[in-house]
Amino acid sequence: IPFSERQALFDLYHFTQGTKWIWNDNSLRPRWDFNDPTINPCDSINSWQGLTCIINSGVDSMIFNVIVGINLKGYNLHGPLSESIGDMIHLQELVLSNNRMTGTLPISIYNLSSLIVLLIDDNHFNGTLSNSIGQLSQLLNLELRQKKFFGTIPSAIAALTHLKTLAMSYNSFSGTLPNNAVLSNLILLNVAVNHL
Fold first, then answer.
1. Residue 82's closest CA among 102, 53, 52?
2. Distance (Å, rounded) from C-alpha 17 to C-alpha 76?
3. Whether 57 contacts 63, CB under 8 Å
4. H/E/C letters for each residue in the chain?
């Protein structure tokens, strides 16, 4: 995988107390191991738990793996999400639900323009939601339930025209949502228990 993606994985592991993660011991896939730099997290036989990878060819026709999915739902992650998450430019799915992650969302997360699924519900994130969320224009599923987000709902939510699920309940958002005609693909909208 590209060095920047490996570094982003290391940062995710380090910032969220990876030594305390609760691994899926029923999985045939190995735990994350940064002790040997020659280990490929996307090995076709033994890719690490929670990762989805594909083979990609770069501009110089070099073939390499890239990470398109991270699903660490319920792995007991504690701590903030590192700014380097924005270096995972091929990421299409980021699922960090049901953990104990804290802090604000790093601004770099809005660089993940290929993101289709962003599930960070049931954590302890806080702060405001940036208007930069409109850069995630491919999103189909956005779940931010049961956080400590506050402030107005960014008008840039209207740029997420592919959204099918928008779940933002149990926060302290205020303001109004974009006109439903703009979010015409929306199937599920849950904004209960806010200040709307």
1. 102
2. 9
3. yes
4. CCHHHHHHHHHHHHHCCHHHCCCCCCCCCCCCCCCCCCCCCCCCCCCCCCEEEEEEECCCCCEEEEEEEEECCCCCCEECCCHHHHHCCCCCEEECCCCEEEECCCHHHHHCCCCCEEECCCCEEEECCCHHHHHCCCCCEEECCCCEEEEECCHHHHHCCCCCEEECCCCEEECCCCCCCCCCCCCEEECCCCEC
pTM greater than the 0.85 cutoff: yes
Q: Does residue 45 surpass a pLDDT of 80?
A: no
Beta pairing partners, 67: 53
Q: What are phi and psi of 109, to 5 degrees?
A: -60, -25
pLDDT digits (tens, 9 = 90+) for 143-168: 998 878 999 888 888 889 999 999 99
* Cα distances (angstroms) measured from residue 185 to each of 98, 145, 160, 164: 26, 20, 10, 5
Amino acid at 89: I
